[in-house]
Design brief:
The protein is an alpha/beta fold. The chain contains 24 helices and ten strands. The protein folds into four domains: about 130 residues, Rossmann fold, CATH 3.40.50; about 140 residues, 2-Layer Sandwich (Alpha-Beta Plaits); about 80 residues, no CATH class; about 90 residues, Arc Repressor Mutant, subunit A. The longest helix has about 40 residues. It comes from Paenibacillus sacheonensis.
Amino acid sequence: MEITILLVDDEAIDLEWLQVRVESGNYDGLRVVGAAKSGFAALAAMERERIDMILTDIRMPIMSGMEFARKAKEIQPDVRIVFISGHDDFQYAKEAIQLHAYDYLLKPVDDDDLEKTLTGLCAKIREERRSRSAASEALPYVKRELLLRWFREASPNSAEDRVSEFLAPCLREGAAVALIEPDDRERLAKEMPLEERRALWARVESFLADFAQSEGLGEFMNGFNDRFILLVTAADEAGASLDKMIFAFRKAFPFTITIGLGDRAYRAEDLHASYRQAETALSIKWLVGKDRVIRDASSRTTGKPAAADTERLVQAMLQAMLEYDLVKIDDCLQALFSPDGGPLRKSEAYDLIVRITSKLHGGLQLLNENLYELLNWEAQEPVLLFEFETMADLVSWLRRRFFELSELLITKRRKQDRKLIAAIIGYMEERLAHKVTLREVATHFDFTPNYLGYLFKEETGMTFSDYINDVRIKKARVMLDDPLMKIYEISDKVGYNNVIYFNRMFKQAMGMTPGEYRKKNKI
């Protein structure tokens, strides 16, 4: 198995020369994965790929080599660091010791010193890997299978002698069962070829095993249903080391892990109970969320909204969608999925989604709309819902889709409203010479006068009467430009039967009477 090395130096020439020397050296299986010119670039490289060893300059601007080393240890606790410095400074050496640095080289680095350091470090890494492998094999396959089978038993029968023999040293100081579950594995798996999936899973197992070993957490093994089991023997009552594992994993992989943790046990039957508690803890990941340590919470209450509440909330949510009120939509979703009786179980949540979508679809059909066509809700959509591992993920997905639905509805309605208003204006202009009232137009287009008046003002920014007066005055101005037309004729043609009233309305709009308008424009 290859060993990876990352080189870090802010001096481009020194960095390039160091890379040449490492790559041209006779180091079997050693691969340079990157040459970074700053601590920030180096940390970014560590998030992309696992690093076994780092050669870094100490004196770098903004983020020193020491600061970088501390952050690197947070990402990968077992990474080996060799410092390079142009100063034989005791303070630097002291800090390097505190960071468990493997070596401390002075610039200019001698070829023999570099070779001795890298050869020794490669040998040490390979030896550690062999030790971990040997430690893993210390629990033979048969014992591991017996232990797993014992954990799966419904009641804590006496453990077989071979299992008890293995458990004895763990229980002497106390141990708790931690179940480690990679999050969103089903969605990730279906997007990967089989070989790539296997390689990823091997990397996950290797990373977790290495972390558990380097932190001295306890015995690590493969479990059931794509989970891993860790017998936590380290004194970690608050789960701080497991939180650290979660953080390190998040930095190293494009997904997360969730850990269910049971109580500490000193007897075999209590350890069996600890396993059950860890299983129960993981089962409520749906409720409390992923990427965290969860302890058993058997007493957590769950509940579901009453049918009347569901009906009322869905109706309110549909109205909010029609009004493009995103805050109200979110409020309704939160109320539906977090009822007073407590959070919903998974099966209850799916039943609720079916009820919500059915009621929304029925409500939209009354408006001549189709929920499934609007959202392009295809046959695989319900299957997708079952892939969400937490309530928060599911509600987040629904929120996005319902916001999208609201935007589609409001956009579609605005287009329809614009077409309607255009038709109404065309109808008004055709009948301009006659008395045109809001009630008459509303009756013609099959609307109530109040709603049509509201819609007209929303689209045009003017009331119905102001708009029609504006159109009449504009048409009158065009006619006044014709000297052959009499003012009373123009008044009649634009819908004012009373010429005095026409004069008053024209002056109100133009600041002058029709006669004054002609005089001003020399018509």
